Protein backbone atom coordinates (compact mmCIF):
# COMPACT_ATOMS: atom_id res chain seq x y z
CA UNK A 1 0.00 0.00 0.00
CA UNK A 2 1.44 3.43 -0.94
CA UNK A 3 2.52 5.82 1.77
CA UNK A 4 0.60 9.04 2.31
CA UNK A 5 3.19 11.32 0.75
CA UNK A 6 1.89 12.26 -2.71
CA UNK A 7 0.74 15.87 -3.15
CA UNK A 8 -2.15 16.93 -5.37
CA UNK A 9 -2.53 20.34 -7.07
CA UNK A 10 -4.96 21.16 -4.23
CA UNK A 11 -2.02 20.79 -1.83
CA UNK A 12 -3.50 17.69 -0.21
CA UNK A 13 -1.17 14.92 0.97
CA UNK A 14 -2.65 11.61 -0.16
CA UNK A 15 -1.79 7.92 -0.54
CA UNK A 16 -1.51 7.26 -4.28
CA UNK A 17 0.94 5.07 -6.23
CA UNK A 18 2.29 7.68 -8.67
CA UNK A 19 5.73 8.98 -7.70
CA UNK A 20 6.25 11.84 -10.11
CA UNK A 21 9.21 13.98 -11.14
CA UNK A 22 9.88 16.02 -8.00
CA UNK A 23 10.28 15.69 -4.28
CA UNK A 24 9.78 18.37 -1.66
CA UNK A 25 9.06 19.09 1.95
CA UNK A 26 7.23 21.37 4.34
CA UNK A 27 8.74 20.07 7.60
CA UNK A 28 8.14 17.01 9.76
CA UNK A 29 4.55 15.96 9.07
CA UNK A 30 4.55 12.28 10.11
CA UNK A 31 4.79 10.37 13.36
CA UNK A 32 7.00 7.39 14.22
CA UNK A 33 4.54 5.06 12.47
CA UNK A 34 4.80 7.05 9.22
CA UNK A 35 1.32 8.50 9.54
CA UNK A 36 0.66 12.10 8.46
CA UNK A 37 -0.38 14.06 11.54
CA UNK A 38 -0.16 17.66 10.24
CA UNK A 39 -0.35 19.44 6.88
CA UNK A 40 2.62 21.72 7.49
CA UNK A 41 5.23 22.56 10.09
CA UNK A 42 7.00 25.51 8.46
CA UNK A 43 6.37 28.35 6.00
CA UNK A 44 9.20 27.17 3.76
CA UNK A 45 7.55 24.79 1.29
CA UNK A 46 10.08 23.72 -1.34
CA UNK A 47 10.23 21.50 -4.41
CA UNK A 48 13.40 19.48 -4.95
CA UNK A 49 15.12 17.15 -7.38
CA UNK A 50 14.47 13.43 -6.95
CA UNK A 51 18.23 12.81 -7.16
CA UNK A 52 20.97 15.16 -5.94
CA UNK A 53 24.70 14.45 -5.45
CA UNK A 54 24.13 10.79 -4.74
CA UNK A 55 22.27 11.42 -1.50
CA UNK A 56 19.97 8.67 -0.21
CA UNK A 57 17.18 9.03 2.33
CA UNK A 58 14.98 6.63 4.25
CA UNK A 59 11.44 7.67 3.35
CA UNK A 60 9.51 9.12 6.32
CA UNK A 61 12.27 8.39 8.84
CA UNK A 62 11.15 9.22 12.40
CA UNK A 63 11.77 12.86 13.41
CA UNK A 64 13.08 13.78 9.97
CA UNK A 65 11.32 15.92 7.37
CA UNK A 66 8.57 14.22 5.39
CA UNK A 67 9.52 13.49 1.78
CA UNK A 68 6.65 14.61 -0.44
CA UNK A 69 6.28 13.75 -4.13
CA UNK A 70 4.72 15.74 -6.99
CA UNK A 71 3.75 14.70 -10.50
CA UNK A 72 5.81 17.62 -11.81
CA UNK A 73 6.89 21.18 -11.05
CA UNK A 74 3.57 22.69 -12.15
CA UNK A 75 1.83 20.51 -9.54
CA UNK A 76 4.31 21.60 -6.86
CA UNK A 77 3.71 25.26 -7.69
CA UNK A 78 -0.06 24.76 -7.55
CA UNK A 79 0.28 23.20 -4.10
CA UNK A 80 2.32 26.24 -2.99
CA UNK A 81 5.92 24.99 -3.20
CA UNK A 82 8.80 26.96 -4.76
CA UNK A 83 12.18 25.80 -6.17
CA UNK A 84 14.75 24.67 -3.58
CA UNK A 85 17.70 27.03 -3.27
CA UNK A 86 20.18 24.16 -2.81
CA UNK A 87 19.44 21.33 -5.23
CA UNK A 88 17.71 23.63 -7.76
CA UNK A 89 19.84 26.70 -7.31
CA UNK A 90 19.62 27.88 -10.95
CA UNK A 91 15.82 27.48 -10.99
CA UNK A 92 15.55 29.31 -7.67
CA UNK A 93 17.65 32.22 -8.95
CA UNK A 94 15.57 32.42 -12.15
CA UNK A 95 12.37 32.31 -10.11
CA UNK A 96 13.61 35.05 -7.73
CA UNK A 97 14.70 37.30 -10.61
CA UNK A 98 11.27 37.07 -12.24
CA UNK A 99 9.58 37.57 -8.87
CA UNK A 100 11.57 40.77 -8.35
CA UNK A 101 10.70 41.91 -11.88
CA UNK A 102 7.01 41.38 -11.09
CA UNK A 103 6.88 42.91 -7.62
CA UNK A 104 9.93 45.18 -7.37
CA UNK A 105 12.71 45.33 -4.84
CA UNK A 106 15.07 42.59 -3.72
CA UNK A 107 13.26 39.43 -2.60
CA UNK A 108 14.98 36.80 -0.50
CA UNK A 109 13.51 33.36 0.00
CA UNK A 110 12.14 34.37 3.42
CA UNK A 111 10.14 37.21 1.88
CA UNK A 112 8.90 34.97 -0.93
CA UNK A 113 7.93 32.23 1.53
CA UNK A 114 5.94 34.70 3.64
CA UNK A 115 3.92 35.86 0.61
CA UNK A 116 3.34 32.32 -0.64
CA UNK A 117 2.28 31.12 2.80
CA UNK A 118 -0.41 33.81 2.95
CA UNK A 119 -1.60 32.87 -0.55
CA UNK A 120 -1.62 29.09 -0.21
CA UNK A 121 -3.83 28.58 2.85
CA UNK A 122 -7.14 29.93 4.13
CA UNK A 123 -6.87 28.62 7.66
CA UNK A 124 -6.31 24.90 7.09
CA UNK A 125 -7.85 24.76 3.62
CA UNK A 126 -6.50 25.58 0.17
CA UNK A 127 -6.90 29.25 -0.74
CA UNK A 128 -8.22 29.79 -4.27
CA UNK A 129 -9.04 32.87 -6.32
CA UNK A 130 -11.26 33.64 -9.32
CA UNK A 131 -10.07 34.53 -12.81
CA UNK A 132 -10.98 34.19 -16.47
CA UNK A 133 -9.37 30.91 -17.51
CA UNK A 134 -8.47 32.27 -20.96
CA UNK A 135 -6.26 34.92 -19.33
CA UNK A 136 -4.14 32.43 -17.37
CA UNK A 137 -0.63 31.40 -18.49
CA UNK A 138 0.44 27.86 -19.31
CA UNK A 139 1.26 25.82 -16.21
CA UNK A 140 -1.53 27.30 -14.09
CA UNK A 141 -3.90 24.90 -12.33
CA UNK A 142 -7.64 25.50 -12.02
CA UNK A 143 -10.47 23.50 -10.51
CA UNK A 144 -13.20 22.28 -12.88
CA UNK A 145 -16.00 20.43 -11.07
CA UNK A 146 -13.50 20.01 -8.19
CA UNK A 147 -11.03 18.20 -10.49
CA UNK A 148 -7.64 19.93 -10.97
CA UNK A 149 -6.85 20.83 -14.57
CA UNK A 150 -3.73 22.44 -15.98
CA UNK A 151 -3.89 25.24 -18.56
CA UNK A 152 -1.63 24.19 -21.40
CA UNK A 153 -1.37 25.32 -25.03
CA UNK A 154 -5.02 26.13 -25.56
CA UNK A 155 -6.34 23.18 -23.57
CA UNK A 156 -7.44 22.19 -20.09
CA UNK A 157 -5.98 18.82 -19.12
CA UNK A 158 -6.98 16.87 -16.01
CA UNK A 159 -4.38 15.87 -13.42
CA UNK A 160 -3.90 12.34 -12.07
CA UNK A 161 -1.11 10.91 -9.94
CA UNK A 162 0.13 8.94 -12.97
CA UNK A 163 -0.07 11.71 -15.55
CA UNK A 164 -2.39 13.98 -17.53
CA UNK A 165 -5.61 12.90 -19.24
CA UNK A 166 -9.03 14.01 -20.52
CA UNK A 167 -8.23 17.05 -22.63
CA UNK A 168 -10.74 19.75 -23.48
CA UNK A 169 -10.47 23.01 -25.39
CA UNK A 170 -9.80 26.10 -23.35
CA UNK A 171 -13.02 28.18 -23.15
CA UNK A 172 -12.91 31.66 -24.66
CA UNK A 173 -14.28 33.01 -21.41
CA UNK A 174 -15.06 31.21 -18.18
CA UNK A 175 -14.44 32.31 -14.62
CA UNK A 176 -12.88 29.51 -12.60
CA UNK A 177 -11.34 28.81 -9.20
CA UNK A 178 -7.56 29.10 -9.64
CA UNK A 179 -5.42 26.73 -7.55
CA UNK A 180 -1.96 28.13 -8.36
CA UNK A 181 -1.20 31.06 -6.03
CA UNK A 182 -1.56 34.48 -7.71
CA UNK A 183 2.08 35.46 -7.21
CA UNK A 184 3.18 32.28 -9.00
CA UNK A 185 0.80 33.01 -11.86
CA UNK A 186 2.41 36.45 -12.15
CA UNK A 187 5.86 34.83 -12.34
CA UNK A 188 4.56 32.45 -15.05
CA UNK A 189 3.29 35.46 -17.02
CA UNK A 190 6.74 37.04 -16.65
CA UNK A 191 8.32 34.06 -18.40
CA UNK A 192 8.87 31.18 -15.97
CA UNK A 193 7.86 27.88 -17.60
CA UNK A 194 7.39 25.06 -15.09
CA UNK A 195 8.57 21.54 -15.85
CA UNK A 196 5.63 19.30 -16.72
CA UNK A 197 5.10 15.56 -16.96
CA UNK A 198 5.67 13.96 -20.39
CA UNK A 199 2.01 12.86 -20.61
CA UNK A 200 1.08 16.49 -21.12
CA UNK A 201 2.84 16.20 -24.50
CA UNK A 202 1.01 12.94 -25.25
CA UNK A 203 3.94 10.72 -24.21
CA UNK A 204 3.82 8.01 -21.54
Class by alpha and beta content: alpha+beta
Q: What's the mean pLDDT score? A: 94
Radius of gyration: 16 Å
| Main beta-sheet annotation | 6 strands, antiparallel
Give a written overview of the molecule.
The protein is an alpha+beta fold and 204 residues long. The protein has 2 domains: 4-89, no CATH class; 121-201, Roll (SH3 type barrels). 21% of the residues lie in helices and 27% in strands. It has 4 helices and 14 strands. It has helices at residues 73-79, 89-103, 109-120, 182-189, and strands at 4-7, 13-15, 22-25, 46-49, 68-70, 82-83, 121-122, 125-126, 129-132, 141-144, 147-152, 155-160, 163-169, 175-178. The strands form 4 sheets. The protein has a 6-stranded antiparallel β-sheet with strand order 9-14-10-11-12-13. Strand 12 (155-160) and strand 13 form a beta hairpin. Helix 2 (89-103) crosses helix 4 (182-189). The longest helix is centred in the middle third of the chain and has 15 residues, at 89-103. The chain is globular.
Question: What order do the helices and strands come in, and which of them pair?
Answer:
Layout lengths: L3 E4 L5 E3 L6 E4 L20 E4 L18 E3 L2 H7 L2 E2 L5 H15 L5 H12 E2 L2 E2 L2 E4 L8 E4 L2 E6 L2 E6 L2 E7 L5 E4 L3 H8 L15
Parallel strand pairs: 4-6
Antiparallel strand pairs: 1-2, 3-4, 3-5, 7-8, 9-14, 10-11, 10-14, 11-12, 12-13
Helix pairs in contact: 2-4
Short description:
This protein is of the alpha+beta class and 204 residues long. It has helices at residues 73-79, 89-103, 109-120, 182-189, and strands spanning 4-7, 13-15, 22-25, 46-49, 68-70, 82-83, 121-122, 125-126, 129-132, 141-144, 147-152, 155-160, 163-169, 175-178. The chain contains 4 helices and 14 strands.
Amino acid sequence: MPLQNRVTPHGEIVALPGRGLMMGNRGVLHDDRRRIVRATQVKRWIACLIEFRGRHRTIMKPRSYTELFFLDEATAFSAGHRPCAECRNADCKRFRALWEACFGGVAGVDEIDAVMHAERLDGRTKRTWRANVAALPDGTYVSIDEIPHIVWRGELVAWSDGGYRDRQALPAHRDVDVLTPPSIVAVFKAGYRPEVHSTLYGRA
